[in-house]
Amino acid sequence: MFEVKGNSVSFSGIPATKLAEDFGTPLYIYDEKTIRKNCQALKSMVDLPNFEVFYSAKANTNIALLKIIKSEGLKIDAMSLGELALEKEAGFEASEILFLGNNLKESDIKAVTGEGIKCCLDSLDQVERFCKIAPNTNFYIRLNPGVGTGAGHHEKVVTAGKVKFGIDLSLLDEAIILAKAQGCKVTGFMVHIGSLFLDSTPYLNAIEQLLEIAKSYPDIEYIDFGGGIGVAYDRETEQPFPFADFSEKFSKILKDWMSDTGRAPTFAMEPGRFVVAESGACLAEVQSVKTNSGVHFAGTNLGFNFLLRPEFYQAYHEIIKATGLQGEKVTYNVTGNVCESGDNLGKDRELAKCKVGDLLLVRDTGAYGYAMASNYNSMCRPAEVLITATGEAKLIRKREETADLLKNQIY
Ligand code: LLP
Hints:
The structure is a single chain. This protein is α/β, with parallel strands linked by helices. The protein has twelve helices and 21 strands. Strands 4, 14, 15, 16, 17, 18, 19, 20 and 21 form a nine-stranded mixed sheet that branches. The chain has an eight-stranded parallel β-barrel with strand order 5-6-7-8-9-11-12-13, surrounded by five helices. The protein has a three-stranded antiparallel sheet with strand order 1-2-3. A hairpin with a 2-residue loop joins strand 14 and strand 15. The mean pLDDT is about 95. Ligand LLP binds next to helix 10 and helix 11.
């Protein structure tokens, strides 16, 4: 999504310094071509007319990006009424949206069922509530595939076993009976084992497990394997998800299942990160360089309020210099400007010597970057810019202003 030329980095020929000048820093930058390429790869992963890809919008809900994703023919999931509103704004129809909330209250269910959006429920009490509100309808359920079946880059994002998600497998029949009592029918199963795996084995196991379960339930016409396909944030030590090999194995499993059972349900997947992570990068400005107790610090204006992943999950994001690339190398702890010692973007990073005013580029921030940003320390959230397929830099979200911080306060 960017090129290194001589002493600086540019995006489709636009120098990082020009983006910083025009839009300020910190700045979220996205590359349209990368998003399109990822959507196309996912869509062609399985060569079956009954295979659908839902973009998991929690990764990034910028409407300009949602429009690109829609134009590539992906459907979308929503986990809150807020996501739903943004998706409708981006042009998604009710029939293209899968609502997959957690701990829904009555008004959430009413809002969704009123629109005819497909709903996926994840507890027995939600099933009961849903059936009372929308009797004689169909819905899907999320199953918790049990201890030992999850996968993900951090325990906070592993979603199988002793976690709050899904209906325990032992309660599946009870859920179906509850539904029947209100004239409702469970017509879909969904499983999401966790987020960011680079090894396809646990995912393939979960797929086979769910398909095996679905064999005993002839009413099931929708089978959704969730999201979680990872990206290799550390290009030096990690191997990318084995996409081609997975796609071959996955297709064969689905085709064999169809010929064994004589059934052709809709098969679905809900990737979030894979669609947008690599399309994004954050431009940060070095605002202070110092050495404390022998540790060199490059202090930027990109704190954990704007990019939470490094601190919250100890997640790795590659950091490169976007200006002043040549010269003596120094090992830095790269930090933000939030008032906490844990405000780290990356530790022990070897970079060309930094000076105040230099720009740093934090890579792969398209997923769960802006989406998890906050106003902690009362800072205004960054702007977002799209590098379009024709190579222009287009502002897709304004930088917040102090007035935005005051907007909802009553005093
Ligand atoms: N479907 C369901 C039901 C999910 O809960 C999620 C993610 C996805 C799909 C999409 O997963 P993906 O393909 O993006 O891995 N903030 C964390 C990730 C949280 C994932 C939450 N659920 C991070 O920055 O790593």
